[in-house]
Amino acid sequence: MAPHTVDPTGAFTASCGYDGAYPDALAVYCSDGRFTEAVEELLRELGHARLDTLTMPGGPGLLNLWSTGLAEHAVASNAARFLVEKHGIVKAVLLAHEGCGYYRWLCPTASPTRIRARQLDDLHAARGFLADTHPGLAVETFYANASGDRVSFERVAAEGALGCVRK
Ligand SMILES: [Zn+2]
């Protein structure tokens, strides 16, 4: 039987290896599967072959209390705290992406430009939240763009001078 074939009973052995040590990097990004492989590739290029992930619709936007609901923020911040404290995460990479359905749902009348501005604002706020709650944690922020049939990333500088654009 080929190793990638799932037995009718459900028995299956993955071809990738298993390492019992926790990764030391955490990627916080949206659940949107159109970007998953690209995000993992970016993290590998940044030197993180293995990573913990925190994926929810809206991704790092949920770490900005003033942009999301109390319940969503509590879930996301508690999950991040658990991973940082219990898995020994030392670096977090926060990623927002173009065409995010969560933000379109949150801001149905906003233009793509305004949504992008809000996402960048949320990235800055999420970075600040993690820096405040987890001193010593290194945080990087990126924005993913759909470019034809590719995904391209741009680093979002910490000192972004973007205004707060909210509904
Ligand atoms: Zn999304």
Give the arrangement of secondary structure elements.
Elements: E1 25-29, H1 36-45, E2 52-55, H2 70-86, E3 91-97, H3 101-106, H4 112-133, E4 138-147, E5 150-155
Parallel strand pairs: 1-2, 1-3, 3-4
Antiparallel strand pairs: 4-5
The structure holds zinc ion.
Mean pLDDT over the full residue set = 91
Shape: globular
| Adjacency order of strands in the biggest sheet | 2-1-3-4-5
Low-confidence stretches: 160-167
**Bound molecule kinds, no repeats:** zinc ion
Sheet having the most strands: 5 strands, mixed
**Count of discrete alpha- or pi-helical segments spanning 4 or more residues:** 4
Q: Give the topology string: H per helix, E per strand.
A: EHEHEHHEE
SS class: alpha/beta
What proportion strand? 15-25%
Q: Percentage of helical residues?
A: 25-40%
Distance between the termini: 56 Å
Number of strands: 5
- Over the alpha carbons, how many angstroms does the gyration radius reach? 17 Å
General description of the model:
It is a single chain. Strand 1, helix 1 (36-45) and strand 2 form a beta-alpha-beta unit. A 5-stranded mixed β-sheet has the order 2-1-3-4-5, sandwiched between helices. The longest helix is centred in the C-terminal third of the chain and has 22 residues, at 112-133. The protein has helices at residues 36-45, 70-86, 101-106, 112-133, and strands at 25-29, 52-55, 91-97, 138-147, 150-155. Residues 160-167 have low confidence and may be disordered. It is built from 4 helices and 5 strands, in the order E-H-E-H-E-H-H-E-E. The chain is 33% helix and 19% strand. With 167 residues, the chain is of the alpha/beta class. Bound molecules: zinc ion. Zinc ion is lined by residues 30, 32, 57, 97, 100-102. The site of zinc ion has 7 residues, from helix 3.
